[in-house]
Amino acid sequence: MSAPSGPTGERAGSVPATVRPAPAARSAWYGTAAFLLLLAAVFAASYAVGTAAGPVAPGLHSPDAPGQDGTGHGGGGHG
To answer: Is the whole-model pTM more than 0.70?
Structure first.
């Protein structure tokens, strides 16, 4: 048994199609949101791995690290 239909042919109590977003618009939004969430997760994971790995070269320090004179000489082997 179906609900009685109104003068426009819609079932009584149903929401008109103009109020509901189209499935394509909904899927585009979900796809974009999922992509941005995945992108944020990848950046967070890469940052965590980089922080855990530490510097890329032995003896690499920040120029403003305590105990550094800031001259930048590191024995490059030239000369």
So the answer is: no
